[in-house]
Amino acid sequence: MAGVMQWLSVASRRSLVLSRTAEWNASGTLKTVPLLTRGAHVETSSARIEKLVPNEYDGPLVKTEVPGPKTKELIKELDAVNKNAATVQSFVDYDKCLGNYMVDVDGNRLLDTFAQISSIPIGYNHPAIIDVMKDPANLSLLVNRPALGVFPSGSFPSTLANVLLSVAPKGLSRVQTMMCGTCSNENAVKQALMWYRGKKRGGPPTQEELESCVIGKEPGCPPYTVLSFKGSFHGRTLGCLTLTHSKPIFRLDIPSMDWPYASFPRMKYPLEDFEAENRAEEDRCLKEVVEQMEKGLATGRDVAAMIIEPIQAEGGDNHASPYFFHQLQKICKQFGSVFIVDEVQTGCCTTGHFWAYESWNLPEAPDMVVFSKKMQAGGYYFKDEFAVDGPSRVFNTWMGDPPKLMLLGAVLDIIKRDNLITVARESGQVLLDGLKSLQDKYPDLLSRARGMGTFAAIDCKDPDTMGKVSRIVKNKGVFMGTCGTQSIRFRPSLVFQPHHVDIALDALDSTLADISVQ
Amino acid sequence: MAGVMQWLSVASRRSLVLSRTAEWNASGTLKTVPLLTRGAHVETSSARIEKLVPNEYDGPLVKTEVPGPKTKELIKELDAVNKNAATVQSFVDYDKCLGNYMVDVDGNRLLDTFAQISSIPIGYNHPAIIDVMKDPANLSLLVNRPALGVFPSGSFPSTLANVLLSVAPKGLSRVQTMMCGTCSNENAVKQALMWYRGKKRGGPPTQEELESCVIGKEPGCPPYTVLSFKGSFHGRTLGCLTLTHSKPIFRLDIPSMDWPYASFPRMKYPLEDFEAENRAEEDRCLKEVVEQMEKGLATGRDVAAMIIEPIQAEGGDNHASPYFFHQLQKICKQFGSVFIVDEVQTGCCTTGHFWAYESWNLPEAPDMVVFSKKMQAGGYYFKDEFAVDGPSRVFNTWMGDPPKLMLLGAVLDIIKRDNLITVARESGQVLLDGLKSLQDKYPDLLSRARGMGTFAAIDCKDPDTMGKVSRIVKNKGVFMGTCGTQSIRFRPSLVFQPHHVDIALDALDSTLADISVQ
Questions:
Q1: Helix residue ranges, H only, A343-419
Q2: Is the N or the C terminus of chain B less surrounded, counting Cβ atoms within 10 Å?
């Protein structure tokens, strides 16, 4: 089969054993495949792989250049409709996708380590999700979209309790559903601002407040602010954009509120080798935070809340230590501000914890935790004391979408049944070890391997190299995401097993070898 | 059946013929029902009603007080989860809903003239929607939620073209999907701001712009504004809230951008009887608009765009004349600003036009038209020239939800097959005539009957009366929405036929009679 590159890996769990050492590249040339040796993880047994998704494909299959001709044609077709198709990577044949494998309209089967921007929880076409969506008992929830704030179904309270509250961060007994990560952040921030203002006011609003807020003026609309961090990403609506400080493309030409921000630590990796330097860097950032809080109070522009990602994702996979987050929580308590953790990307097990913040061992939970993506349903958890103090203050037409909660119910069952938190830890360890090996092997091309669970990344030499890696590795059958200026980021689904890690790392190794000789 | 009020209407289309003159109220007392006579619309034939939704119920059935005991219990249960359940009117048994009838968990069957805040297009459990959701060919789109900006399905471009573009406003050849009305408004406004800034800049952004925008500062984040109107409602995220000027509860305690607004005409109804007064009122508002545009230019705070609802909904069902909108479009052209029409609530046939703006007969379409609600999919149409000028400027993880487009496809087929635009016009005429009759009959209680299609409203004497009407009429088996300070608003689905109007108006008549004698 000329023009066909086929992976035929037969690997035991937690190991890499490729049964062949040659592959066809996209242009039909046979070349040898560098086999990466990863010390303890290499086993010689050819034990059968225990696939978490039944009948999952054995490996990628690249039939055309990626993107292929059909995808290119469809990009033109889509661009004629929305003039916004340049970001499209592939058009996908969702009927054929399974588990970790995405099949595009050109027949290419790619191992997907990006999972729809980190939003596919248990792989494609998981039988448990199919069962839920085919269940006639669920049909009326698919057909009749309710306004959840006014006419929820009779099953809605128990669904919230049994599904969403079953994984609530400890101490956050309340949950508000929303549509997506962005509107969840918008509403969490709103609710925090209402709480802060209510606390300061200490009673019902004045007539002047009620009248002035309708036209967007003080005192009804207070000049309070929400603090965020350099490198942050919290969404793309106007409020969330004010809280976002990663790439220019997000905010260029969009007016902004004048809200404060502080530096997010720029750590050295591996974290354990640079404790002193990293602590100094974190203290520098904490000092900025305190300065902003004090400045806010002094100018009547109180910092009502702080919002932060456990690991800055879009901004380049920036980690901080538990110490940093402990201090932030303390600062929030000191200033009476709401501590909001945006777990839209880190939540739902991908870090090897259900919520990434659990790794910090805080004395108590953050005040609010926002979720979306892998949870499929958007929303936020909050402590009882931060509840809104009246009807219709946090409200919109739909306030969520019940089929997404059905889907999440099935996802949580599978996470539990298949112990997917452990899988994320195990696969994450194999992945991080492998990335470190590759960075040792290609010190001129790679650096700063880092990760928690499968939420991992590595830096390329420069943005151009990142672009090359992403393009070449895709043509070797593996889709990898990017972030920051020059990072490759891994955001696989929760059924990404060690043998998938092996395939991904092998393709990356081969890619780097190609680039090295260029 | 003590405690049961049953409607047994047998009415010919476009007529009201009730077969009984007595009903049981919720407390089990038998009382006479006032039969409203509506001149030309009363016929004596008992011709069979042609139901647009097969097997739809014949009328409401009230078994308990509404809300009933099970709903009250579930409100407590929901409030324990989200502390935000006070807005819930009923918990619904969606399996039992059909057409215009909502059945609650207490077994009450209510004629629904509000349709989930105007968002149910062709009634509950319409067979055409059930067929689409059960179709195995659509299953993978329900199971695998794509990031539409990166990995859309192969069918996505043709779905956009065949579904969304098939009802595009004339001249608006492009469409961008989003999630809900709020994020559609947010992104339409963003895209307008980008366009305006790009036009002023006349070239690529400067290094200073790229650097300053990341931290939310000028010149990268320009001080441009978007003009909105008093009484407006465009959503509840921070950007949309800045554009919203209806009720204090929406904005209290939330910081705002300092953006301009102008008065929306406060018309006298019926419009045709007060042409001179209404023209003067509209000219007063137009003057304010021009002043704000000029002030913006003079201060470097250019009004980049204007956003307006064809009929202000949440703000109290405020209408304006085609003249007003013609002038607004002219003003936008004069100042080089983007003219955005928010048809989230008015769109999709409810006004007797597919888009309400069509009733204005503008020389050309608005620059952007935003939709959601009855369309089920959110998004906005725009003229080619307002397209974004680069990748990833309008983007988020999901950018919509394909099952909602499947649903919309079925809805549009039924709208066409059953000629539902005509139904909205006919039912709307019966409704408006009936409201005018009622306002003649109860001049101390009702005024300002107004409407376009079934998008209709009438004012109550005061907010307290509005509350009473809404509560009592619900207990007579009809759910009616409210808006503004004291309006009852009608927002039925598109299968709301004249015989449903009759049932609704009879219940309203009976309610007003009850209130009159109190």
A1: 402-417
A2: C
| pTM score, whole prediction | 0.92
Pick the CATH number of A160-384 from 3.30.360.10, 3.40.640.10, 3.30.2320.30, 3.40.50.2000: 3.40.640.10
DSSP assignment of A287-345 equals HHHHHHHHHHHHHT--EEEEEE-SSBTTTT-B---HHHHHHHHHHHHHHT-EEEEE-TT
**In which residue ranges of chain A is CATH 3.40.640.10 found?**
160-384
| ipTM summary value | 0.92
Q: How far apart are CA A412 and CA A402, in angstroms?
A: 15
Share of chain A above pLDDT 90, in %: 90
- How far is A189 from A243, CA to CA, in rounded Å? 10
> What does the block give as tokens for B338?
């983007």
* Collapsed DSSP state (helix, strand, coil) of residue A228: strand
User: For B218-250, b where at least 16 C-beta lie within 10 A, e where not — what string?
Assistant: ebbbbebbbbbbbbbbbbbbbbbbbbbbbbbeb
Question: What homologous superfamily does CATH list for A5-125+419-516?
Answer: Aspartate Aminotransferase, domain 1 (3.90.1150.10)
Cβ–Cβ under 8 Å, residues A376 and A408: yes
CA–CA separation, A119 and A138 (whole Å): 23
Residue A438 is predicted with a pLDDT of 98
Are B254 and A239 in contact by the 8 Å Cβ rule? The answer is: no
Which chain B residues have a beta carbon less than 8 Å from that of A370? none
Q: How confident is the model at residue B49 (pLDDT cuts 50, 70, 90)?
A: confident
Q: Are B241 and A273 in contact (CB under 8 A)?
A: no
Of B169, B118, B173, B200, nearest in space to B376 by CA: B118
Residue ranges, CATH 3.90.1150.10, chain A: 5-125+419-516
Angle at B22 between CA B17 and CA B25, to 5 degrees: 120
Question: Which pLDDT belongs to residue A47?
Answer: 54
Q: A22-50, pLDDT tens digit by residue?
A: 333 344 333 333 334 333 333 334 456 89
A58 catalytically annotated: no
Q: Is the distance from CB of A68 to CB of A460 less than 8 angstroms?
A: no
The contacts of residue B65 (CB under 8 Å, 6+ apart) are: B26, B27, B475
Signed CA dihedral, B445, B450, B453, B457: sign only: negative
Domain with CATH 3.40.640.10 in chain B: 146-400
Q: Which residues is B174 bridged to in the sheet? A: B382
- Short-list A309, A295, A330, A291, CA closest to A245: A309
Say whether B24 sits in a helix, a strand or coil.
Answer: strand
Check B394 against A84: CB less than 8 A apart: yes
CA B316, chain centre distance (Å)? 12
| Residue type at position A22 | A
Are B26 and B66 in contact, with CB atoms under 8 Å apart? Answer: yes
| B119, B133, B387 member nearest A142 (Cβ) | B133
Q: Per the CB < 8 Å rule, is A388 touching B216?
A: no
Tell me the CATH class for B146-400. Answer: alpha beta
Q: What CA–CA distance (Å, rounded) separates A484 from A487?
A: 6
Q: What's the CATH number for B5-124+421-517?
A: 3.90.1150.10
3-state secondary structure A170-207: CCCCEEEEECCHHHHHHHHHHHHHHHHHHHHHCCCCCH
Closest residue in chain B to residue A226, using alpha carbons only = B255
CATH 3.90.1150.10-classified regions of chain B: 5-124+421-517
- What distances in angstroms separate CA A409 from CA A167, A343, A405, B412, one per listed residue? 11, 19, 6, 32
Query: What contacts A248, CB < 8 A, 6 or more positions away?
Result: B205, B209, B210, B211, B213, B214, B220
Binary contact (B81, A216; C-beta < 8 A): no
Residues forming beta bridges with residue B370, ordered by sequence position:
B342, B380
